User: Fold this.
Amino acid sequence: MPKLDPALLEAIGQPMPELEKLSAADQKKLAADLAHAHKQHDATLKKSMDDAMGHIPFLLRGAVKKILGL
Assistant:
């Protein structure tokens, strides 16, 4: 039984013994797919926040970003 791939463990953030049943190749594929999904999610979130900031007057954007931690 293969151990959990380190890249997959990093992608999911917590140990999941059920995933050890996957082959090493499938674990690597899942880790790559999760990393790709995280990048897409981050890009979509950034774009939506940038679009939302467009509705805030320019002089207030810095303060709002600071409050939101952006």
